[in-house]
Amino acid sequence: MSRAVRVRGDELETERGARAKKRSLAVDRSTSSRSPGDLAVRSSHSHPEILFAIFEPDEAQSGATQGRVCDVAESATEESSDPPSSPIYEPYIPDELAADPVVRSAFKHAMAKYEAEEDRLADLFTMDHYWHQPSSCLHTDSRFLPIRELARDAVLLAAKSVILLSSFLENQLLNKCCGLWFQRDGQRKTALVLTSAHLIRKDDIHKWKRQWTGEYHKNAKVIVHLLDNKTTQGQLIYLQEHYEFAIYEVQVDKPVHLPTFNDGVHSGQDVFRLGRDADLDIKITHGNLAYDIPSRYERCHYMYFLRDASSLKLLHDDGGPIIDLEGKVVGLVNNQINETFVPSSILHKCFDFWRRFNCMPRLHLGMTFSPIKFLDPICIERMTRKHKIDSGLIVEQVSKESHAEKIGIRKGDVIESFNGKHISTTIELESMLIDLCWDHFDQRKKLNAEKDVSVKIFDATKLCPRTRNLTAIVSDCGEDIVKGAYPIMGEEAMSVL
Length: 497
Hints:
Elements: E1 25-27, E2 40-42, E3 50-56, E4 68-70, H1 101-122, H2 137-140, H3 148-159, E5 162-169, E6 172-185, E7 190-196, E8 221-225, E9 231-240, E10 245-251, E11 260-262, E12 270-276, E13 282-290, E14 303-307, E15 321-323, E16 329-335, E17 340-343, H4 344-357, E18 362-364, E19 367-371, H5 377-387, E20 393-398, H6 403-406, E21 414-418, E22 421-422, H7 426-442, E23 450-459, E24 464-475, H8 490-496
Helix pairs in contact: 4-7
């Protein structure tokens, strides 16, 4: 059952007919022409002026017609009393006057004036598509004809929430990342931005692939580039190192567009990755969702964006959204090198936790895993035939001196269940680890405490099952997996020589 706050549209007074009002408008989803991405819910845990992005859990996808609340901006257009500009006509010389030198001189002057006017028109914002060559795959690629209209509307809807952020150390640029609006406080005139923690991470981005956790410049100056070309400074509110995202608060005078997040995704579906360049132009890359086995230094909760092989890699930053064909956010890009992202189902649980307990914890198990489900069917069939193992998580790494190591869990073992619950993917595991933290905090326990988890293990060496109690740590820090190593000294060193 989702813990996301829901507000029915019929419980709110519908505002009608006033452009000057900036407040909320209750919308019936079944009859409204407004897209779901324009809608948000009020938070019941805070001031009634606070609006929060909508999360749609997987189980809510089957025809739900729940009311929504949207943040409506004032849109007053002043009509100009100036007369319209004169039409522009191209001059020409009638045939019978072609030899007249006076006419030819007048024509030359008129043509110069005409060309100057044409150049002026070419600079209009509505005409720049003639000289600005679009890089979007949706413009020219015929492969997208079946979904072009859906994708266009989805991109334009989601783009309203996508902004650019820059970080600086002593006025030297540190990094750039995209971000998403996800909460608005109308009374305080502030909004919260969700972005990648890589915005303020130390070290070169190419080193990140070989590290579990890094260090962060929490005091870095962060500039938020608003879509009206104005800028404002962001204040760091929360940094989640394990899931690698950050939340910044900014002052905003106008309402912002809050996206809709979709928890329900499936492997292979069409998605688009969005970002912004230095000119704030939206960048679009098509791909497909995929579950996969994480590499050694990738988090268990990662999902993967499989970019079209023929597509150029147009985006070189993190923090942008992955959206579906309805313009709903299905994940947040956290590593543009490997094109991995944090799925919305994890973000959903994190934000619910943060709104209630002001933190985003998970259990640290001291292990990494590979899901049997994602192996080659030949390997799965062999395991099933020889050992009757067809699901579970293969232990890939055990952190040195962790409790998992102390109770005898080794690389290659299979974890069949946690607390009696069978887990088939690392995404499911991550979700379960957060849920266990709910129970922990409901019992009024705190961060950095221990929690016991019953694990059923299939020992791959002795070929037998066993059940053990694993003591895990409740933490909102990044989990480091320490590789087992020891120094060669004294007589051991001599024996090697």
